[in-house]
Amino acid sequence: MLIQRREKLVEEVFGETNWYERLKEYFPEREMKSKNHFDALLQDKPEMYQIMEGTDYVVVYYEQLDFIFIDYILVSGNTRGKGVGGELLKVLKEKGKAIILEVEPVSMEDPDSEKRIRFYERHSFLRMANIRYERVHNISKELNKMDIFCWTPVERTEAWVLEKMKKIYTNVHAYKTEELYGVKPQTEDEVLQLRKALRKVN
């Protein structure tokens, strides 16, 4: 299946698609940003924070010179298991940069959690077992614990991934937190910590 990337101007994204509602319907509140938060990122960082959207999928990602962070990836229920997700990852892998993403740990409350992990493992993503990532949601105040997964075309260390995650947290998740939510953001060190000695990735 061919995935075609549709580049959009920020104003087109805001006015002509329902990508936000689609994400909101699928992702739990503790993982969602407010619409104003999305708007700020898309308006202030249009070359870095982008949306790739089609009838059956939505991908929101943050791109830097040496890595891509997938903030959200959603494949519609009726097309899951048909290769769409793999094609989306292939499109991003072809950029030749490391890809970092957050995955909810296996949970009895979410039967899809184990399937998501197996999906990323099939596509050569590795779990960064030594990185602890926990942050409090700006609205619900829920503690959100996530695992970090990474795919990289060249050898990297978990220390390298950790430093990129700190940048992601500051520049994406905590972006304009006080202005948008009226709360002071957690520090990088409060959110991201090492469990033990780090290993190499790939």
Automatic annotation (TrEMBL):
Q: Which Pfam family name is an example for this entry? A: Acetyltransf_1
Q: Which organism is it from?
A: Ureibacillus yapensis
Q: Which InterPro entries match?
A: Acyl_CoA_acyltransferase, GNAT_dom
Q: What is the lineage of its organism?
A: Bacteria, Bacillati, Bacillota, Bacilli, Bacillales
Where, if anywhere, are coiled coils annotated? none
Protein's name according to its UniProt entry = GNAT family N-acetyltransferase
Q: Which residues form the N-acetyltransferase domain?
A: 1-146
- Extract one GO molecular function annotation from the record: acyltransferase activity, transferring groups other than amino-acyl groups
**What SUPFAM superfamilies does this protein map onto?**
Acyl-CoA N-acyltransferases (Nat)
Q: Which UniProt keywords apply?
A: Transferase
Superkingdom to which the source organism belongs = Bacteria
- The membrane-spanning stretches of this chain are none
